[in-house]
Design a protein that fits this description.
Distance between the termini: 10 Å
Order of helices and strands: EEEHEEEHEHEEEHHHHEHEH
Shape: globular
Number of strands: 12
CATH superfamily of the largest domain: ATPase, nucleotide binding domain
Radius of gyration: 20 Å
CATH class of the largest domain: Alpha Beta
Structural class: alpha/beta
Helix content: 25-40%
Strand content: 15-25%
CATH topology of the largest domain: Nucleotidyltransferase, domain 5
Strand order of the largest sheet: 3-2-1-4-7
């Protein structure tokens, strides 16, 4: 079976083709036509036609997008490629491609990829986490994405930070309109803001990590605060979902010390006398989203 995945992003469109065993057959990236709905859909259709021509076979097609299909309207919502919002993306692409397709949020695609043949491949329940410019998540159970009654399963980034302390106040405003969202604390910009609050210096997350490793006490303090916030937030997920493994993706997942420090810290907050949930780094990196789109079938 030929599986085709499309990662439909705001700046690039990526296609991948996998065989029945998940072996990559081809891959290609092209820029996303800026602000042009029809051109964007035509680019997707063209990539699928190219891939099938190259491989001499017709495949299933899955689409990953930063947005999600509204259950109320069937239209795309919350995509950073804003020309897609409020449009029947799935229906229009099905007409162009002449077949049914499946579409999912990119965090769900990441989680599915890691659950099928990534860091969570031996697990029944996988919670996939995106820690980047924003904070997202997806839940996979027995290799199936949990969508939820409101199509928001896994959206932990817009829960409030648990157990806020003096150093977490005042609650920062989130773009969603609510204060104190996990995303405002655990995203890359959230760490930058935390360090600026602690020290007055503006450093990127890699610079903060390097400074801490070199013995900078203020950078070390920033990382410790970040790690405890992440531990509190993931403990809430463990208490509700109880996953076998939590897989981190996004730029912040490259902070190696998280994988030892956070499980040690979350023991304070998880409602269990023993915790076997593992915290793992992604296996497929920025390829997980497009691979997960292919695995939607």
């Amino acid at each position: 079976m030929l599986r085709i995945g499309i990662d439909l992003g705001g700046t690039k469109i990526e296609i991948i083709a996998l065989d029945a065993d998940g072996r990559e057959l081809l891959r290609r990236r092209v820029p996303t036509p800026a602000g042009d709905y029809s051109a964007t859909l035509a680019e997707v259709a063209g990539l699928v036609a190219w891939a099938e021509g190259e491989l001499g076979a017709r495949g299933s097609v899955g689409i990953g997008t930063p947005g999600a299909v509204s259950l109320a309207t069937g239209l795309l919502k919350n995509a950073n490629s804003t020309c897609l919002n409020g449009r029947p993306v799935k229906q229009d692409l099905e007409a162009l491609l002449g077949r049914k397709l499946r579409i999912a949020n990119d965090a769900n695609c990441f989680a599915l990829s890691e659950a099928v043949d990534g860091a969570g491949r031996d697990a029944q329940v996988v919670f996939g986490v995106i820690l980047g410019t924003g904070v997202g998540g997806g839940i996979v159970m027995s290799r199936r994405v949990l969508v939820g009654a409101n199509a928001i399963a896994g959206e932990w980034g817009h829960n409030p930070l648990p157990l806020p302390r003096a150093e977490d106040l005042p609650l920062p405003e989130c773009y969603c309109g609510r204060p104190g969202c996990i995303e405002t604390y655990l995203s890359g910009p959230g760490m930058v803001k935390l360090h600026a609050t602690v020290t007055g210096a503006s450093l990127s997350p890699p610079e903060i990590v390097a400074a801490a490793a070199a013995g900078d006490a203020s950078a070390e303090r920033t990382l410790q605060l970040y790690e405890d916030r992440l531990a509190r937030s993931l403990a809430g997920v463990i208490n509700v979902v109880d996953p076998d493994v939590i897989v981190l993706g996004g730029g912040m997942s490259n902070i190696e010390r998280l994988y030892a420090s956070v499980p040690r810290l979350w023991a304070r907050y998880v409602f269990s006398d023993s915790i076997v949930t593992r915290l793992e780094r992604h296996r497929h990196g920025d390829s997980s989203g497009v691979r997960g789109a292919a695995w939607l079938w």
